[in-house]
Amino acid sequence: MERLKNKVAIITGAASGQGKAASLLFAQEGSTVIVADFNDEQGRKVVDEIAAGHGHAEFYHVDVTEESLVESLVKYTVEKYGKLDIMYNNAGLVKMRPIGELPTDEWDFTIRFELNQVYYGCKYALQQMEKQGYGVILNTASTSGLIGIPGHGPHAASKAGVIGLTRSIAVDYGPKGIRCNAIAPGFIPYTQQTEDLSNDQFINMMLQVQPIKRHGQVEDIAQCALFLCSDESSWITGQAIAVDGGHTAM
Predict the structure, then answer these.
(1) Which residue positions does the secretion signal occupy (predicted)?
(2) Which residue, among 66, 104, 71, has the nearest Cα to 87 in the 3D structure?
């Protein structure tokens, strides 16, 4: 049985990593997926891969840090498909270092790419979902928003903000048929966004702070996202679910 049959989902940051994994899985489970990203080449490859598996998707070029462009993304989706069932605010870029060493422009960069764009996605999805009387919003947070991790200052602040935003939306919009949750991924070495991810010593060190002694995979996050966006989680809202190999339990 397809767990997202006939659903329409926007996934931001969907050209690679966790967003790509979720796009492939959601399409496999019956959803039409709007693959939203600013990387045209990689985004179109994701759509082609979905089509090869007989799924339904299209690419939408967007810079999610621009509010008007996020508004247009939601408007386009609703005009074409008549509804928006799922808004997965996954995109994000980060600059990480201890706060005392952090240039203000790097703070602004992180808040813009990790918190502001989630607010934009939530805002315009909520306006449509309130009209519909239903919908699911899923936000990408991080274990950095739940526990202290050395050197993660701006990332911790932005992701704690995402978790607070998620809970607020759940409280305000639950009575209107809208659920909102967050996933807090642990360390997943799938990208070169930061120097840490190319450092073998750091990667191996992370295994020592996890009860489950393997690296996380993007598919681990996608499976949790699928559950939280499906009807199987219909009584879950306002939660930040850590998918981290048990790191936050240590």
Answers:
(1) none
(2) 71
User: pLDDT, tens digit, for every residue of 150-192?
Assistant: 889 999 999 999 999 999 999 999 999 999 999 999 988 765 4
Q: Compute the C-alpha angle 115/197/97, nearest 5°.
A: 55
Distance, CA of 19 to CA of 41 (rounded, Å): 15
Name the DSSP letter for residue 177: T
Give the domain ranges of the chain.
8-245
Place of tokens 């939203």: 36
Superfamily of domain 8-245: NAD(P)-binding Rossmann-like Domain (3.40.50.720)
pTM exceeding the 0.70 threshold for the entire prediction? yes
